[in-house]
């Protein structure tokens, strides 16, 4: 029987203090292993960083409830120290990376959206990085440094499904892109440009606007002028909500596609309780399979646990964030070290998916979690808005990914599926 360890889900970082003369930030307690997580907890991408932290906190708690992490035959408590990059990694990483790695001695980092900014620092100070998801793929962040291990490659796993779905379900021949000129949206545009032609669609119009634009009317008129069969709206959840609303107000009744992770509650809150269900009719969300639509019983139960604990709908990335902690634990135990970063990175290359993970990872040669490019993959889904239940329903399961972003439709038995809510 494992002994129950005291659970401390996260420890606030001591920010804004130089490395010299710092006390109380690191720990010399050999009964504790502390890993770092650099996440967007404030700013535009806090919508994603917050749930990532919640899921990681839950995983840390469960690791400790199950006996902690065993190094050198000794069970130790696992802790997570979280650093906020403010959704401005180009500005914050030069100070956060030294804090996490040099000052606080993190043996491994969990990241999201910022690994491209971390990569330049890894040559002089290598540390294994488990990236929950990346903000760009050209080039793929895992190609920037051999210490970066990517759980989801962002657009190449998701956006290629847009063309396949529109061709199969709507016989669409054209699609327009409408989104802010920023990395998140630009990655989606690049994937559309590469893949929609494979499904007989013409990317008829590309309309981009400044990320800080408030009056979108002229951009919306430009997108509608080509009379496309569908429009893909790029950007984060907060960015697309007003765009979807204004497209419907302008009379566009055809399919709208997006990749945001927008939850039903967010649709209600951002668009408005009185109108959101009407606005969302004919909107399709493409993302990694969610806990609610994952065919695995473990993921379905995790989604219920996550919602019960945090009173929120768990989007796709909460599974990856939860799993990242178990992956970190398994890698350090395989390396039998919480300090030898090289051994931990080597262990990650050979790691099989820990049995406690819930996502349902596609295993590579030898049963490995990561392929030769240090990339893990899992199932994706197209979700359609159900106006009867005011929530998402699964419409199409598929896989895609680099290098060619080819789409393979996956037949998931409805009897094994948890069902969307």
Q: Could you explain how this protein is built, in words?
A:
The chain is α/β, with parallel strands linked by helices and 421 residues long. The protein folds into 2 domains: 11-155 and 296-378, Response regulator (Rossmann fold), CATH 3.40.50.2300; 157-292 and 379-416, 3-Layer(aba) Sandwich (Rossmann fold), CATH 3.40.50. It is 35% helix and 20% strand. It is built from 13 helices and 17 strands. The protein has helices at 46-65, 89-103, 115-122, 155-158, 160-170, 183-195, 217-225, 237-249, 264-271, 276-279, 297-310, 316-335, 341-350; strands at 11-12, 32-39, 69-71, 74-84, 109-111, 129-131, 148-150, 174-180, 202-209, 231-233, 256-258, 283-288, 361-362, 377-378, 380-386, 391-399, 408-410. The chain has an 8-stranded mixed beta sheet, sandwiched between helices. Strands 1, 2, 3, 4, 5, 6 and 7 form a 7-stranded mixed beta sheet that branches. Helix 1 (46-65) crosses helix 12, helix 8 packs across helix 9 (264-271) and helix 12 crosses helix 13. The longest helix has 20 residues, at 46-65. It is globular and about 65 Å long. The two termini are 37 Å apart. Pfam families: Peripla_BP_6. Residues 33-359 form the Leucine-binding protein domain. Keywords: Signal. InterPro entries: BCAA_transport, Leu-bd, Peripla_BP_I. Belongs to the leucine-binding protein family.
Second rung of CATH, namely the architecture of the largest domain = 3-Layer(aba) Sandwich
How are strands sequenced across the largest beta sheet? 9-8-10-11-12-15-16-17
Question: What is the CA-atom radius of gyration, in angstroms?
Answer: 21 Å
Question: What series of H and E elements makes up the topology?
Answer: EEHEEHEHEEHHEHEHEHEHHEHHHEEEEE
Instruction: State the CATH superfamily name of the largest domain.
Output: Response regulator
Which structural class fits the helix and strand makeup? alpha/beta
Largest sheet: 8 strands, mixed
- Beta-sheet strand percentage? 15-25%
Question: How many alpha or pi helices?
Answer: 13
**What is the top-level CATH class of the largest domain?**
Alpha Beta
What is the helix fraction of residues, given as a range? 25-40%
Shape designation: globular
- pLDDT averaged residue by residue: 90
Taken together, the total number of domains comes to 2
CATH topology of the largest domain: Rossmann fold
